[in-house]
User: Which sequence fits this backbone?
């Protein structure tokens, strides 16, 4: 009997992904796979396409070419030379399982913290309010903010808002969490609390794809780091390769520039 370990089926599988805005080709053929339980990071220079890649993965932007498979379901693909999108309901169902946490939190300002958290499960997933409220309180406790359940977002610090945004994403029972620079809008003293929350999620085995400029954090937590520049995934590898033995000259230049 052979005892070959089977390759884990990726949760997210992307091949030759393209995105253009008019004549501006922003993503030029991205290949990327994430296995369940992995924490992947996207790093790279401003304007390189990191946010666009994240937004295409959960269809906040519609890709213009290539293939995305999520949890074994094809959301878009090329059929010969024709680019095809999955039916809208298929895409909508997949999106619920990969919520995004934004730099600017995007909480509803006229709703309390707990109302923000239960909105997705109740309105989008049509789950019953009572169990969702109970779960929301557990999530609030986990991010250390149970006492803020009835506060409004304006009464919270940036770091607290971001932890609420993370709790709101978790309330959807996501398979994949997407983060776009979750700490970039925060005062320096508030960054650590949000990074600790993300670290706790990694320890729980959550699958995550995180855009960040926090290189030390990425180095400590990443299974794989992807360097995106000019709409291309220039290099992917474990932190030791990316930071200490980068192969691509462009990545070597980027690492030099952030060390200065
Ligand atoms: N909605 C849009 N319409 C037109 N062009 C866009 C749009 N969104 C992004 N772009 C362009 O796509 C390119 C990549 O932008 P993107 O925001 O993905 O970069 P990024 O790597 O996230 O940069 P940063 O580190 O500054 O956040 C930029 O040239 C940008 O102007
Ligand atoms: Mg961005």
Assistant:
């Amino acid at each position: 009997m052979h005892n070959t370990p089977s390759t884990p089926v990726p949760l997210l599988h992307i091949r030759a992904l393209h995105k253009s805005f008019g004549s501006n080709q922003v993503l030029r053929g991205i290949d990327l796979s994430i296995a369940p339980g992995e924490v992947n990071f996207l790093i790279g220079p401003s304007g390189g396409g990191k946010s666009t890649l994240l937004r295409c993965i959960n269809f906040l932007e519609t890709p213009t070419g290539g293939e995305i498979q999520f949890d074994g379901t094809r959301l878009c693909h090329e059929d010969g030379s024709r680019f095809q999108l999955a039916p809208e309901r298929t895409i909508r169902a997949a999106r619920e399982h990969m919520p995004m946490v934004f730099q600017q939190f995007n909480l509803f300002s006229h709703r309390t913290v707990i109302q923000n958290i239960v909105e997705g499960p109740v309105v989008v997933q049509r789950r019953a309010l009572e169990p969702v409220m109970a779960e929301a309180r557990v999530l609030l406790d986990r991010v250390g903010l149970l006492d803020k359940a009835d506060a409004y977002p304006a009464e919270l610090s940036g770091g607290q808002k971001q932890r609420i945004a993370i709790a709101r994403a978790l309330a959807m029972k996501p398979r994949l969490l997407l983060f776009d620079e979750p700490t970039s809008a925060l005062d320096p003293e508030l960054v650590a609390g949000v990074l600790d929350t993300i670290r706790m999620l990694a320890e729980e085995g959550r699958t995550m794809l995180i855009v960040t400029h926090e290189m030390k954090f990425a180095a400590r937590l990443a299974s794989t780091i992807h360097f995106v520049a000019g709409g291309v995934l220039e290099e992917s590898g474990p932190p030791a390769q990316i930071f200490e033995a980068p192969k691509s000259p462009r990545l070597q230049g980027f690492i030099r520039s952030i060390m200065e």
